[in-house]
Amino acid sequence: MRIADRYILRELLPPFLLGIGGFLVILIGDILYTLAEYIVTGRVTVSIVMRLLAYKMPAIMVITFPVSTLFGALLGLGRLARDRELDALRLVGTSLPRLFAPVVAFGLVIAGVTFLTNEVVSPWANQRANRLIRRAILGEAFPEVREQVFLRGPDNRVFYVNRVDDQARRLHNVMIFESDGPLPRLIAARDATWSHTTWVLRNGVTRDLDAAGFTTYEAAFAVMRINTGLDGATFFDGQRTPEEMTVRELRSQIDLFRAGLSPRVALEYHRKFAIPVASVVFALVAAPVSLLAARGGRFVGVGASIALLFAYYVVMSVARALGFAGVLPPALSAWTPNLVFVAAGVLLVVRVDGGARFGLPRPAAVRAAGARS
Questions:
Q1: Cα separation of 218 and 66, whole Å?
Q2: Cα–Cα–Cα angle for 33, 39, 42, nearest 5°?
Q3: Contact (Cβ atoms closer than 8 angstroms) between residue 61 and residue 117
Q4: Which of 263, 348, 354, 358 could lock onto 288 through a cystine, CB 3.0 to 4.6 A?
Q5: Is the Cβ–Cβ distance between 147 and 172 less than 8 Å?
């Protein structure tokens, strides 16, 4: 079986790499299509385009790796099934779950690579890509404030802005966490404005917290002024969206602000794990589907890939929308597509393992027939 495992893995690799190349071309083409107007008008140079594509590459790879795993598993196993090589392995008593083990192992390796890319490289690259878009492409003048971002200011303060009114230059649902003192303090305000280096908070409350996070003192205020020591251009240049943060940073902000955060932050935290695991899920689902589609040829495998991807992203989009609306908890919203497809994959493996669709005897029957002969 070690030889068979290596053989199966070698069969998965070419369509996997082909999938990476194909989806990279599609996603890069989408970015270039978006920038076409700026390129034609001369607002974007070749140098800026190349830098932007380089910054976007980690985020593109995070999407491409799970999709290519599905593509590789369907086409690779489909080829083995069409040439009856899997049938030969089953006839010597190997069960389908054992045959699928290297495929799932391949998905686990890709999941690890995806997680590391999404955790180590992607936040840094996303931040620089967004900054490049705002400054060089859109020509926006700073300060530009984005919603649901974290800003680390002087004196060990962390600022969070939930919603922004660009026309009025007013910030809504602002939270500030201060850790520079004997006790940490959480300041929440219904709205705020800024003037030069000073934030003006209105209609809020301050809470002093103990080491366990419980409130030891609470007081409401009508107006509070906080001098950050930085002008708007410098201060807001450090803002970071959840997509630009690592797992540890997201977890830290969730623990700091707890229930006051937008569901988007917690949802992005759980998606940091759910997206890489999609590689394993796709491998599990693709393995039995490849056998079902083997009789139809290679194009049926490609069609099955597209259909499965469409179904997965429909479920993901619906679950994400329900998570943003607060209907689903963030963890369930992020993991729903994987849970649905894992259940479907297990059912397919159990069903296909019977061999009824392929006219194959069960492994036990094969061994009994060999003993009688």
A1: 48
A2: 165
A3: yes
A4: 348
A5: no
